[in-house]
Design brief:
There is one protein chain. By secondary structure, this protein is mainly α. It has helices at about 5-15, 20-35, 35-45, 45-60, 70-75, 75-110, 115-130, 135-160, 175-190, 195-200, 210-235, 235-240, 245-250, 265-295, 305-315, 320-350. Helices cover about 70% and strands about 0% of the residues. The protein is globular, with a radius of gyration of 21 Å.
Amino acid sequence: MNRINGFQLYSMLLMMTMPVAFLVLPGVLASCLENNAWLAAVAAIIPGTLIIFIFSSITKKSRQPFPLLLEEHLGKIAGKTLSFIYIFFFLLASSFALRTFVEFIETNVLPGTPISVFIGIMLITALVGIKSGLTNIARTTELIIYIAVPFTLLMLALTLIHNPDFGNLKPFAYMGYKDFALALVFSTIPLVNMFPVLTLFHYFQRQNVLKPMFQVMLTYILLISLTTMSTIVVLGGQNSALFTFPAFVAIRLISIGDFIQNIDIVFIGVWIMGIFGALTIWWFMACYTIQQVFRLHDYRFLAAPTTLIIGVTSILLSPNILELVLLTNAILTPLYYFFLLFIPLIVFFITLFKPAVEQQPEYPESEKSVSTAE
């Protein structure tokens, strides 16, 4: 029986791609292309389609979910070793999502508050989500998407009608190829975060995973391109590159009728829900991978001991927000591409000439694994 439906899968994958990208990516793209930054977001549809094809092909050729599919296609020793390494990567990804949340709140909302307070509150909330099981995580992300997407579109519309200067978008497509390629690399990173589909397809319909992934990509491109464009229209291309969170700066300037102001606090509440979803799913992937690597009966009891690892790592990532940005560009970006795209690409080539699961011989009963996600 399927434990998550199509919209829940869409919600979980969108939660992996949008929250951090919405705040950070417009500034990163503007630093590369200035007024033409939004073009890189639109162009992400090409590598995004390839990524979706790779992930979809792997799911159709694999009997087991990630990380067991690594053992299925790479062999038991190589697969188990690589799965063990992935545990640390998922913990790092969880820590990065948590640290981004902390830096945003510390810089823009409650400066001077000890970061341990924010980290503790977020970890406790996500811990409850992990212990509730995959089905409840899916239902929670579904509810968040129902609220977040319409509200984000509303915020972007209000941003565009508040003293817009569309001249900031000129000159159109006047940019260097190298700068555009670098911006395209950054705009594609959030799409590789759909990697958890290699696990989630096991609890969905294998043959239907393509549609939710395409819906996620189109939603991501729409929201990020509109966010980047509205930020440039309001702040200008050069000014957008000066801010770590330019989208929030643009939203902060919104006023309705000169008497409704400071509506950014509502945005902060919605965005925190998105970060909760991203943190919880990466954390789930870490616990689930540990369970499968060591053949444990359940993964939920692993959430508590890994809490300390994620919390301490998020603090140790960098001493301040400037070094966090440098760390993201120089180290975390290559790591994300290596674990979330390069290794799946290897698996894709290995499975390229294999028949689909429906056409493969019956899997030996002794090699089947019990996967508990409830």
